[in-house]
Write a structure and sequence with these properties.
The structure is a homodimer. The first copy, chain A, is α/β, with parallel strands linked by helices. Chain A has 2 domains: about 70 residues, Hypothetical PUA domain-like, domain 1 (Ribosomal Protein L25, Chain P), CATH 2.40.240.20; about 160 residues, Alpha/beta knot. In chain A, about 30% of the residues lie in helices and about 20% in strands. The first copy, chain A, contains 7 helices and 12 strands. In chain A, the strands form 2 sheets. In chain A, strands 6, 7, 8, 9, 10, 11 and 12 form a 7-stranded parallel β-sheet that branches. In chain A, strands 1-3-4-5-2 form a 5-stranded mixed β-sheet, with helices on both faces. In chain A, helix 2 packs across helix 3. In chain A, about 45% of the residues are buried. The interface between A and B is large, with 59 and 59 residues.
């Protein structure tokens, strides 16, 4: 990162934001602002709730177990990212946490775990993933938090797919065109296409054959090396944002 | 990942490879092949050493504490990636491990830690990072292992920079052109440019001013959100490989 960003600490709150409104921090947030960021009473915090934009909050009163402040002015208008939806097969805990955090940084609109034939992880803690997404949104400056959907089986997902939206899948067979070529040329109707990344070990042969029969599925090639699932997530979303998304 | 790759388990060995040569596995490798992959004596392993290509090794003799096999045929010729060199400010342990593994998957030629003003991590375990790179190479199918250089100070690095090679830096100020625009247009002389990613908190103001005076430094923009150092590594290398590197 080249720039030193002189920015306020950012926290998400689950309450309305308006002029002079009293903002209530959670115990963890009060601890973070007081003991980690070492903010005094004259400091300020940037606060957002996902729909009222970003507010400067001052007149801080940070105690050990609770904290308060007063919203003084709106510093950014509300905006939502218009990036791709991401469907991902849950992998190991650390890698899944990573997928959620990085997809948030890279502007995914919503995330949903997909259970495929080779998916090893039976249980997914959606609540924990939602907290990861919120923390990543705080850090990367997003004003909205991507929704983490409940896990869905691959067949069920595909059976109810909205035909107007493309579903882009990374293909390791070497038979697809390069990501850049396809993403540069893809037609976008109402919103960005969705991306889907399979588990370690990929999709099964049956799944693959089925996926290739679907008119909304588009496969892309992500180079000659075998990428881990979490790397493929970052690479695919980067390719989109850099060519057709909000980096372009 | 779409494809189910039917590939042999891959391991790196530090010995010559030639027809009928006896291949000696380490204790950890023998354990992995015997108890994790559950290979029998009639199974085969793909083995590489960084310079003799990839060999099929059969006639396995896997014991609890040691393992052997016989190299039967070369299955791939030696090749080296021609991707960018990566200079990175070491961050926290997990994130640094991640940077090394992902840069290996994404075809970085060599990696070197750079100590900048805001770099928090004093000590870098180069040996451990080299092991990470080797494991990532085993998994992603690379036949070479990126060298991890010893840590170097930013000023020292820049003072001995070869002028013919560009050094590309992610710029968070919003003043640079988009990564795609710059990478599509950049002139490449002998080999790929190098990339450098700063620590959490970025480069200092003094470092920034100095960097911008250097004729070989090129800054790129990686979008409107603040990326973590490890995300910026994956994003920058992806942009390169997808447009000018071996994904194109």
């Amino acid at each position: 990162m080249v720039a030193m960003v002189q920015s306020l600490p950012r926290v998400y709150v689950d309450q309305p934001l308006a002029p002079d409104i009293r903002v209530i921090f959670t115990r963890d947030q009060a601890h973070y602002l007081r003991d980690v960021m070492r903010l005094g009473t004259d400091a300020a915090v940037a606060v957002f709730n996902g729909h009222d934009g970003e507010w400067r909050v001052g007149q801080l009163d940070l105690q050990r177990k609770a904290g308060f402040g007063i919203a003084t002015e709106q510093i950014r208008n509300q905006s939502s990212v218009s990036g791709p939806d991401l469907f991902f097969a849950p992998v190991k805990k650390t890698a899944t946490d990573f997928i959620v955090a990085k997809a948030t940084e890279l502007g995914a609109r919503a995330l949903r775990p997909v259970i495929t034939e080779f998916t090893h992880t039976g249980r997914v803690n959606v609540e924990r993933l939602q907290i990861n997404a919120r923390e990543a949104a705080e850090q990367c400056g997003r004003l909205d938090i991507p929704q983490i959907g409940s896990p869905i089986g691959l067949r069920e997902l595909l059976g109810s797919w909205p035909l107007a939206q493309s579903l882009i899948i990374a293909d390791e067979t070497g038979e697809s065109n390069s990501a850049m070529k396809i993403l540069n040329e893809i037609r976008v109707e109402n919103h960005a296409p969705a991306f889907m990344i399979g588990p370690q070990g990929g999709f099964s042969k049956t799944e693959l054959v089925f996926l290739r029969t679907l008119p909304f599925v588009i496969t892309i090639d992500l180079g000659p090396r075998i990428l881990r699932a979490e790397t493929a997530v970052v690479a695919a979303l980067t390719c989109w944002q850099a060519t057709r998304g909000d980096w372009a």
